[in-house]
Structure formats: structure tokens, C-alpha cells
Amino acid sequence: MRLSLCYTSFLDANDWLSIGVDFFTGVVIALILAYVVPKKLNDDRSLKDFFMQEFQSIKNEYNDFCKEMCLGKHDARTIKEIFKQLSLKLDDIQNVANRNLKVDINILDELSQTQVQVTRAQEINDQYEEPNITFNPTTKNLIWQRQDVFNKNIISAIASINKAKSK
Does this model's pTM top 0.90? Predict the structure, then answer.
């Protein structure tokens, strides 16, 4: 009888130990699911939102710039400087997005092609010292076409970012 009481007490201790381990494991898993996973998901969403907003901002800035160029509101030096600033911003944000989100965004080439075509336009050469460059209809059409392609690429980049899985 004494042996069976000892054996029963031993089983009770093992049962209690098992319950304690199960409880502790459950609490740890619950904490991970309650705090760590949502924080990671929130951090990932915040990072994606940041990149999408940056690309949207560059798109808006570029569209305003194209409109202003076509309306003859800039001189040659300002046009070159704005292209340079847009290129630097776009290069930085696309490189960081590619690295952090494992995406392959390359919109800078599109902006560079537009920059080359606009800055090599005859109007820039003819009116270089003028306070405002007035582009002819052919060059304006080229600017609008390049703007359309640029916007489509930005939209594709934003979609890629939204689908991406961060590192």
C-alpha cells in the first residue's frame, strides 16, 4: 500500500510538471502570437507604406515638373537641376526598396532617358540663356509620352512593393 501511494504521488508530480510545462509553452506561444507576429507584420506594412509613399511623392513631383516644363516655366539650368534632384531621390529610394523588400525596381533608367531627350532638345540649345524654355509641340508630346511610361513604371513599382515580402 505504501508503494502504491508513493507511485501515485510520483505520477501526480509528473502530471503537475507536465501541466506546468504545457502551460508555460502555451503562454510563450500566446505571447509570440499576440505581440511578436503582429509587430513584425506591422513593421513590414509600415516599411511597405513608406516606400509606396516615397514613390508616389516622386511621381507627383515628376508630373508637376513635366507640366511646368511644357508650360514654359523653367530655364535650362533649372530643368537640368530638377532632373538631377529627381534622379538622386529615385536612385536612393529604389536601391533601398530593392535591398529591403527583395524587389527589382528600375525606374531610374526611364527618368534618365527622359532627361537625355529633354536636355538634348533643340529648344534647350537655342534658348539656353532665356529665363524660360518654350518647347515646340513635338517636344511637348515626347515629354507627355515619356511621362506616361514613367507613371506606369511607378505604378508597377508600387504594386511590386505591396506584394513583396521583406527580409
Answer: no
d(CA 138, CA 97): 35
Long-range contacts of 63-67 (CB under 8 A, 24+ apart): 63/147, 63/151, 66/143, 66/144, 66/147
Q: Which helix (H) or strand (E) holds 51?
A: helix 37-70
Distance between CA 45 and CA 161 in Å, rounded? 10
| Burial bucket for residue 59 (CB in 10 Å: 0-12, 13-18, 19+) | buried
Amino acid identity of residue 72, one-letter, is G
CA distances from 84 to 28, 52, 119, 140, 154 (A): 52, 21, 11, 20, 18
Neighbours of 60 (CB within 10 A): 11
**Phi, psi (5° rounding) for residue 61?**
-65, -45
User: Residue type at 35?
Assistant: Y
Give tens-digit pLDDT for 22-81.
666 766 666 665 555 555 555 577 889 999 999 999 999 999 999 999 999 999 999 999
Work out the end-to-end distance of the chain between its first and last CA atoms, rounded to an integer number of angstroms.
62
* Dist CA 140 CA 123 (whole Å): 11
Where does residue 50 rank: exposed (0-12), middle (13-18), buried (19+ CB within 10 A)? middle
